[in-house]
Amino acid sequence: MNPIPMTQKILAKRRRAVLLAVLASWLACEPVGGLTRIRDIARPLGERINKLHGAGLVVGLNGTGDGGDSLIMTRPLEVYLRNMGNPISSEELKKAKNIAYVHVTAELDRSGVRNGDLIDVQVSSMGSAKSLAGGQLIVTALRSMNLEDENVYAIAQGPVEILNAETPTVGVIKGGAVVEYDFLHQYVEYDLEGRAVFTLVLDADQADFQTAKAVEMIINEETALPGEELAAGQTAFALDAKNIRVVIPEKQARHPSLFIARVLNLPVDLPEPEATVFINERTGTIAITGNVEIAPVTVHVNGLQITMMNPAAQNSPAARSSEWTTFDTTQSDGIKISDLTDALDRLNVPAREKIRAIYAIHQAGALRARIVKE
Questions:
Q1: What does the pLDDT look like over 224-238, one tens digit per residue?
Q2: Which of 64, 148, 203, 294 has the most CB atoms around its CB within 10 Å?
Q3: Position 210 in a domain
Q4: Would residue 332 count as lying in a domain?
C-alpha cells in the first residue's frame, strides 16, 4: 500500500473542515421551538401522492362471503380459476359462501417508492359479504386511476386484518403489495436562462399572497452560503398566492437535495391568517381564524336580541342578568366574535341559534370577516 502524500492529507483535512463549516452554518438555521418550518406549510412541486386500485377476491371466509348466487363474485372467480388451469362453471360455484369480491386500494408515499417496496393496501367488500375477517386476498393486480393505463404497478395479496369491528367488511393488509415500478418525482427544472429551479407549492389552507411573500423573504435572507453572493440578489420569487419559485445556486445544481432540504427546513414567521368564520351547521361547530371583529349592530334572531352597548348599561334596573350580557366596545370599533360566542355561552344559547345570530350579523354587514360553510 502506497503512503498518502502529506499534501493530499492536508487537502483532505481542509475539505473536511470546509464541509463541516458549511453543515454547521446550515444546522444553525434549525427552527426555534414554536416557529413554523416551510416544509410544514408547503411541498416541492412534483411531490405528490399516487393511488392504485384493483378488484380481487378474498377467500377462506367462515360462511360470511358473498354467496354463490352473487354474480359479482362468481364471474371473476370463474375467470380466475380458468386462468389457473382449473375451470369451474358458475353452477358449481353457487354453494360457495367463503369468498367475497373486493375493491383493493393502495396509496404511494408522496416522496415516491421504488420497485420492490412493500406498501399497505385497503380491502373493501363490493358484494353482500357480511365480514372479511379471517380471509385471504388472492393475487390482485393494482393499476393507476387512469382507466386508459393498463400497466400493473403493484401486486397485492395476503391475510386481511379488520381494524374496526363495527365495519368488518373493510380491512387492511400491512405490506400487502409489492411495487413493480419506480415512482420517482422530478423536482428540479430549468428556466429560460438555463438556471436550475424548483417550485414550492403552499398548502391550500395556507395559500395567500402574504404567506407567499413571507416565504420568499425568508429564503432570500437565509440561503446565502458563507463566502457566496446571491446571483442578482434574489433566490426566491413569489409567483402568485400559492407558488414560490426558488433558484438553486449554480454550485449545487448538480446535487440539489441538500439545498432543497435546507430551504424546506427554514423557519418562517407566518402572517396573521385571514379573518374567517368556519361554520358546520350539521355538527353545530364554529371555528374562527384571524382577528374577526363585529361592528356596532342590533339583530333579532328567534326572539334573541343582540345589541352592542356600553358596560354602564349593566347597572340598568330594567335589565335582567338571565336575559342579557355586555360587551365592551370602547377599546376598538367593534367586539371580537369570540367575545360574542362566549357571551352567548353564558346565556346558554344553543349552537343552532349562535349560528343563526352570526349569519344575521354577517347579512347586516357588521361581521368583518368571510364565512365558510362546511
A1: 644 444 445 688 999
A2: 294
A3: yes
A4: yes
What residues of the chain score a pLDDT lower than 50? 1-7, 9-11, 14-15, 17-29, 31-33, 225-231, 310, 312-322, 329
Listed in sequence order, the residues at least 6 apart from 237 whose beta carbon sits closer than 8 Å to its beta carbon are 216, 244, 245, 246, 247
**Each residue of 50-68: pLDDT tens digit?**
999 998 889 899 988 887 5
Among 245, 268, 291, give the residue marking a domain's end: 268
Tally of domains in the chain: 3
What is the distance between the alpha carbons of residues 282 and 84, in angstroms, rounded to a whole number? 51
Single-letter amino acid, residue 194: G
User: If you count them, how many residues does the chain have?
Assistant: 374
Strand extents, DSSP E, 95-239 = 100-108, 118-125, 136-144, 154-159, 170-179, 189-190, 196-202, 236-238
- pLDDT, residue 35, reads 78
329 located within any domain:
yes
- On whether both 41 and 82 belong to a single domain, the answer is no
Domain closes at, from 179, 199, 234: 179
